[in-house]
Amino acid sequence: MFKHVAIVYKPTRQCLALAQGFFKELKEQGFIVDTVWVDEVKQGDLDTYDLVLSIGGDGTLLKISWSLLDRSPLILPIPCGRRTVYYEDLDIRDIHSIVEKILDGRFCIDILKRICLSFSSKKYFALNEVAMINQHLGRVLTINVEISTPYNKSRFYIEGDGLIVATASGSSAYVLSAGASVIEPKITGIYLAPLNPMNMNIAPIFLHSFTRIRVTPRGYTNVFVDGIYVGAISPSNSVECMLSNNNIRLIRLSCRGDVVRSIFASRTTLFK
Q1: In-domain check, residue 23
Q2: What domain range includes position 80?
């Protein structure tokens, strides 16, 4: 089922040791295995692999998602980080058992939607969110927003620091800090949330999965895809966001997790 495997790891001592352990185990099983430090991953680098191991936290998985353009290999998240909402609890001491379950097909596939951002004649895919933030911090930015759904068409403007467009699975990330609610990841839809709005009557909106969102800022605006800067929108230019069918496919060894616990546990203040 799998021939070519990539191991993407966070550069810490623990994650490196795990990467070495999985490399050895997979090589002994006859696989072609490549290892890459997460910060070295570029767009398109992982499209040709059959299986990608994400050894780190949510940031490592987001970087893997950002790199995948035309094809989505199966991804096995191995927890080794501070925030691991996208990961499940695994006994990482027993690498042989994990690999054996994968080879025997004893797993479920978790499909997560991504947002397609059309920007400067390019397309980017966001697993968590697209964030559009005022380039001139400390000043109010006016943004024109057009929403088109199968049942509704709305045009309005907001004033504030910017705007976030997020997936349901991304509702545990930046958009949650902006006042949105946590959405169960299996619910398909798209979040629209203003950042520190001057308009006191506007709140985060969860929209139909077939929604197309057109955003036209009236000032210079930085654009981030899952925390990665991709460029700036000049005044009166537009970008479009919509859900894509280019999904992320995660391997789950347990077919039922505890998403709520994972989200709030990762956002608990730790006192020293």
Answers
A1: yes
A2: 4-107+253-266
Residue showing tokens 């006192």: 271
Rounded-to-integer distance, Cα 185 and Cα 170, Å:
8
Residue 204's CATH number: 2.60.200.30
Tokens standing for residue 128: 């968590």
Same domain, yes or no, for 92 and 163? no
Task: Check: CB of residue 216 under 8 Å from CB of residue 238.
Answer: yes
pTM beyond 0.85: yes
Residue 61 identity: L
Shared-domain flag, residues 103 and 119:
no
Contact by Cβ (8 Å): 219, 55:
no
Is 26 strand, coil or helix?
helix
Residue in 114, 106, 105, 67 with CA at minimum distance from that of residue 86: 114
**Domain presence at residue 8:** yes
Residue 200 burial (CB count, 10 A): 6
Same domain, 236 and 142: yes
Contact in structure between 49 and 73 (CB atoms under 8 Å): yes
Q: Which regions of the chain are under pLDDT 70? A: none
Give the pLDDT confidence score for residue 270 in this predicted structure.
Answer: 75
Please state, in angstroms and rounded to a whole number, the distance separating the CA atoms of residues 11 and 26: 20
Which pLDDT value is given to residue 206?
95
Question: Is there a contact between 202 and 180 (Cβ–Cβ < 8 Å)?
Answer: no
Same domain, 15 and 78: yes
pLDDT given for residue 259 in this prediction: 77
CA distances 133 to 144, 167, 254, Å, are 14, 18, 38
Those residues with Cβ within 8 angstroms of residue 115's Cβ, 6 or more apart along the chain or in another chain:
125, 126, 129, 130, 165, 166, 167, 190, 241, 242, 243, 244
Looking at residue 257, what is its pLDDT?
Answer: 73
Q: The CATH number of the domain where 95 resides is what? A: 3.40.50.10330
Structure tokens at 56: 């780190």
